[in-house]
Amino acid sequence: MRLISLSHVNDPATTAVYPGDPPFELETVATIDQDGFYLRLIRQGEHTGTHWGAPGHFNAGEPLADELDLEDLHLGVVKIDVREQCARDPDYAVTIADLERWEQAHGRIPDESMVVIWTGWDARWGTAAFANAGADGTLHHPGFGIETARWLVDTGRIGRRGGTGTDAFSPDVGADATYAVSRLIYRRHRISLEVLANLEALPAAGARILCGGQINRAGSGSPALIYGLLPRAPAEA
Questions:
Q1: Total Cβ atoms within 10 A of residue 195
Q2: Which pairing describes strands 2-5 and 74-81: parallel, antiparallel, or unpaired?
Q3: Nearest alpha carbon to residue 159 among 180, 181, 190
Q4: What pairing do the DSSP bridges indicate for beta strands 25-30 and 39-43?
Q5: How confident is the model at residue 99 (pLDDT cuts 50, 70, 90)?
Q6: What string of H, E and C letters represents the secondary structure of 29-66?
Q7: Measured between alpha carbons, how far is 86 from 174 in angstroms, rounded to an integer?
Q8: Parallel, antiparallel, or unpaired for β 221-223 and 93-94?
Q9: What is the rounded distance in angstroms from the CA atom of residue 114 to the CA atom of residue 98?
Q10: Is the pTM of this model over 0.85?
């Protein structure tokens, strides 16, 4: 297989921080000229930039970062292209019909998959249009409809060990202050991948994802290098 990166580079000049999260700061604490080595101090929340979230992020008693299995962070992945719908409506909630159209073209979503929506929000990275906040501070970005998330759970498509992914801030539509989709997805061993990048390079089906990042004791998740693992074409093998 070959690797692609699905992560943004963290940079205080461009990294969007979810409202209320700690600011992201990099401070140089040692230089080669003065100390013989180069080192920086990082200040950030566990969900800064591209990251994955653990079930305990929203549901008390569910696994936290250090309680997950390695298999929870290595999953088959499908990509649902909803850029056209999201370009028309920044508050678009992905529907069951969107997923059924994908299945008509690619077959049933395998059980316990990572289901990633490609909304086009990755192209907004580094600009105010990523948060897309209204005058009252409400965010406007796409996500999964709650009925769609429940369908993915109830039919086994994300099962006990699977999850949802997005190139926007969260699987919820930005205007949903109740985080209904997140609370549903983050149960059992399901995870959420958020603020993904480079989804153009991820095929609609047939790939896997591998989530890196540090494992903090009782962590709610981690900023991460999230990789797509793509099968090599016969000529590349």
A1: 28
A2: unpaired
A3: 190
A4: antiparallel
A5: very high
A6: EECHHHHCCCEEEEECCCCCCCEEECHHHCCCCCCCHH
A7: 12
A8: unpaired
A9: 16
A10: yes
